[in-house]
C-alpha cells in the first residue's frame, strides 16, 4: 500500500520507487498533476484525494478499482 501526500515529486516516480519493495496493492492520497494513467492499471485500489487534478478522469478510467476518499474515510484491509 502506498500512501502519499500531494505527490509533488510525481506519482509515477513514487510508484516506480515503491515497486522496488514489491507489488503495489493500492495507492491513496493526493496525486497532484499526475496524468500517466497507465501506471495505475495493475493497482487494485486507487483512491485519489484532495489535490488530484485529474480525479474525474481517473475515476472514469478505473471504475472497478477507484474508491472515493476524503477526510474521515476508513478502509479495512485483511
Structural commentary:
The chain is of the alpha/beta class and 78 residues long. It has one domain. It has two helices and three strands. It has helices at 11-18, 55-61; strands at 2-4, 26-29, 45-48. It has a three-stranded parallel sheet with strand order 1-2-3, covered by helices on one side. The protein starts with a strand and ends in a 17-residue tail after the last helix. The mean pLDDT is 94.
Compact summary:
This protein has helices spanning 11-18, 55-61; strands spanning 2-4, 26-29, 45-48. It is α/β, with parallel strands linked by helices and 78 residues long.
Largest sheet: 3 strands, parallel
Percentage of residues in DSSP E strands: 5-15%
SSE arrangement, N to C:
EHEEH
Oligomeric organization of the protein chains: single chain
**What is the rounded distance between the termini?**
12 Å
Overall form: globular
Strand order of the largest sheet: 1-2-3
- Number of DSSP-assigned strands: 3
pLDDT < 50 runs, ≥5 residues: none
Q: What value does the Rg take, in angstroms?
A: 11 Å
Helix content: 10-25%
What's the overall average pLDDT, rounded?
A: 94
- Enumerate how many helices there are, as a single number: 2
**Total separate domains:** 1
What characteristics describe this protein?
78 residues; alpha/beta; 3-stranded parallel sheet; 2 helices; 3 strands; 19% helix; 14% strand; globular
Give the secondary structure arrangement, pairings included.
Layout: E1 2-4, H1 11-18, E2 26-29, E3 45-48, H2 55-61
Parallel strand pairs: 1-2, 2-3
